[in-house]
TrEMBL record:
InterPro entries: FN3_dom, FN3_sf, Ig-like_fold, TSLPR_D1. This is Fibronectin type-III domain-containing protein. It comes from Albula goreensis. The lineage of its organism: Eukaryota, Metazoa, Chordata, Craniata, Vertebrata. It is found in: Membrane. SUPFAM superfamilies: Fibronectin type III.
Length: 427
């Protein structure tokens, strides 16, 4: 009887204890006292305190950290820690969003966001900063100076590096200005393509120093040397084969390949993606084939591709050889036909093109031995000339405008008669 009473008492006690525990519902309170501190030039540490007025024995929580850079989000789940380290391209601006999420209390929901932002850098020392990973252990980083300054200095750093910053050992120049840096070292080994390299570019501006910061990953822009291509013929097929890009371990299967070819009759390339380094294509011996290949980094390994390889050719274009004998026969026949037609039409048009010219000697004989005056109209010579259509000049006609003018008569003195003088008698 005592045992039954004891069990009953324990059941009632547990039920009452559970009933007296407050069951809160709704959103969790947000994390408190969020702060940010710099670990070095590229990394920051965010720390916070658990949500206030929340007992971990009643409701356990975890934290979600959403990191936003250029509208690209990365979500990190943090279970027990209350801090978060981040090494990013800070100059582009970073936005951190922290939330509390319930684990074992399904009656609670996510807390409100707690935000911390790092604004982007306003002063741009360089533009178009880009790094190309072209060989195991080697990488070239290039940029365009924002102005004509010559005192730019580049430093780089990667995680687990012994020293805080290492200066660029080999600059690349364009027109006397620093436009790039060549990096080489074991930290760029091809077996670890996830290596993150951080860059600091600074310049002295009066009493202050201006800085730009960048982060690049080796796998983000891989550009190996173009593969070497060989072509062999097997019956009616061409066997294409290429070597893996130099500078990388051939045992590492990092690459896919794309072949392209065209014949002497084609104007456009035909591209064929291929997973392996060997490919076979059909062959027509009447045409010449030109082939190129390039290596493309597999998506699981990174991004990037090589340039097209040097163009390799195989075979000869025999279409021109077949047309040469035909041209030897066709061209003379066409020329002969054209010459015959030309002579025929010239004969038909000879009267118009080359009219018959009268014999001038015959006309001179008629003029010389004529018995009649050729100048007289109606003479036999004139008639013969007219009949022969020899040009005979006409007698010119002179047109005069004649006007009659009336004048007074002039009285002339009458002549003296001798007879009158002799008969004169005095009165």
């Amino acid at each position: 009887m005592d045992l039954r009473f004891t069990v009953f008492f324990l059941i009632v006690y547990c039920w009452m204890a559970f009933a007296l525990v407050p069951h809160e519902t709704g959103a969790l309170p947000p994390p408190s006292q969020l702060s940010l501190s710099y670990i070095n030039n590229f990394c920051v540490n965010l720390s916070w305190s658990p949500p206030e007025n929340l007992s971990s024995s009643i409701c356990e929580v975890e934290y979600l950290m959403v990191v936003t850079v250029d509208q690209e989000n990365e979500t990190h789940r943090i279970r027990k820690d209350t801090h978060f380290e981040s090494c990013l391209d800070i100059d582009r601006g970073v936005n951190y969003i922290l939330r509390a999420q319930p684990q074992n209390c399904t009656h609670r929901t996510l807390s409100q966001d707690v935000v911390w932002s790092i604004p982007p850098s306003e002063e741009k020392l360089v533009k178009d900063f880009e790094c190309i990973y072209y060989s195991s252990g080697s990488m070239n980083c290039t940029w365009s100076p924002a102005d004509q300054t010559t005192d730019l200095q580049l430093y780089y750093w990667y995680k687990n590096m012994a020293q805080p910053l290492k200066p660029c050992g080999l600059y690349l120049y364009t027109g006397g200005l620093k436009t790039g840096c060549h990096l080489h070292g074991d930290f760029l080994n091809v077996t670890n393509l996830t290596t993150e390299v951080f860059f600091l570019i600074n310049r002295t501006h009066g009493p202050s120093t201006l800085q730009n910061k960048f982060k690049r990953t080796t796998r983000d822009n891989m550009k190996p040397w173009p593969p070497k291509l060989t072509i062999k013929r097997a019956d009616d097929m061409l066997e294409l084969h290429c070597d893996p890009p130099s500078g990388f371990d051939p045992r590492l299967n990092y690459w896919d390949y794309t072949y392209r070819y065209r014949t002497s009759k084609d104007s456009n390339w035909k591209e064929i993606p291929n997973k392996s380094r060997a490919l076979s294509i059909s062959y027509n011996h009447h045409f010449q084939y030109r082939v190129q290949v390039k290596a493309i980094c597999k998506s699981i390994c990174g991004t990037g591709a090589s340039d097209w390889s040097l163009e390799e050719s195989y075979g000869q274009d025999k279409t021109s050889e077949r047309s040469f004998p035909l041209a030897l026969i066709t061209v003379p026949v066409v020329v002969t036909i054209c010459a015959i037609l030309l002579l025929f039409f010239l004969k038909r048009l000879q009267v118009l093109i080359l009219p018959q010219i009268p014999d001038p000697l015959k006309s001179l004989k008629d003029l010389t031995y004529s018995k009649n005056d050729p100048t007289l109209p109606g003479s036999s010579t004139t008639k013969s000339l007219v009949n022969q259509r020899v040009y005979v000049p006409e007698n010119p006609e002179l047109c005069l405008d004649v006007k009659l003018v009336e004048t007074e008569p002039i009285l002339e003195p009458r002549p003296f008669s001798t007879s009158a003088v002799g008969t004169h008698r005095p009165l």
